[in-house]
Specification:
This protein has 5 helices and no strands. The chain is mainly alpha-helical.
Length: 87
């Protein structure tokens, strides 16, 4: 595979609006793509996730990381509200 498995995860996360939809689509693709399935197994083993929960774990971690970016910019809601005139 030419790209990292996490790029594939992000593609599904960005394409689908919910964890359930993204998870279902990912596992549908996984069922028909043996090289991707092998890479996913390897990634799960390396990160400590079960194969069933690996994608969901990445999904939650992905949004936690993105939330942390905003939290670092505006550590509290009052600061955000003041900056953007919501107060």
């Amino acid at each position: 595979m030419d790209r990292d498995i996490t790029d594939v995860f992000e593609q599904f996360i960005l394409e689908y609006t919910s964890l359930e939809d993204a998870d279902n689509a990912f596992f549908d693709r996984l069922a028909g793509d043996e090289p991707l399935r092998d890479e996913y197994r390897e990634w799960c083993s390396a990160t400590g996730y079960s194969e069933r929960k690996g994608f969901a774990g990445f999904y939650h971690d992905y949004f936690d990381r993105h939330d942390a970016i905003w939290d670092s910019i505006f550590p509290n809601n009052e600061e955000y509200d003041e900056e953007y005139g919501k107060a």
